[in-house]
Amino acid sequence: MQRVRRVRRGPGPEHRIQNAIIATLNWRRCAVIRLNAGAIPKEWPSFQGVKPGTPDLIGYRLKDKQVFFIEVKAPKGRISQAQQLYHLDLMHKHVIHGIARSVEDAVKIVNEGLIGYGYPDYKGA
After folding, report:
1. CA 17 to CA 13: how far, in whole Å?
2. How far apart are CA 1 and CA 66, in angstroms?
3. Could you tell me which residues come within 8 angstroms of residue 72 by beta carbon, excluding any fewer than 6 positions away?
């Protein structure tokens, strides 16, 4: 009987982009954390996690304490309905947020204070 070897994969493209964004924004005087969302084991009934659709990264600019949210997507990644609803809520509250498909996108969102950058209904400033 042959053993089936599982191929260990490294982090996917979104994870690599997230790591690069966190490192770059921390270097550019921002505090950034990754919000790990996903399935919660049933053994942890008291832990609810974050709301569905919450962007991957949350942070603030140290210079003015302005909060921002960044949804990281691979180049061909698509947003879910829950992410679209969260986006609409952030738009209503005028919070800096956007979709970053690269480090450059994330830096642009944060530096320029863009609201909704990268979403289908983004009109630009």
Report:
1. 6
2. 60
3. 14, 17, 18, 21, 55, 56, 57, 99, 100, 101, 106
Check residue 18 and give its pLDDT.
Answer: 95
Q: What are the per-10-residue average pLDDT scores of the chain (125 residues)?
A: 67 88 97 80 67 94 97 93 96 96 97 95 78
pLDDT score, position 19: 95
pLDDT of 51: 85
Q: What is the pLDDT of residue 52?
A: 86
In the block, tokens 């569905």 appear at 52
CA distance 47 to 60: 25
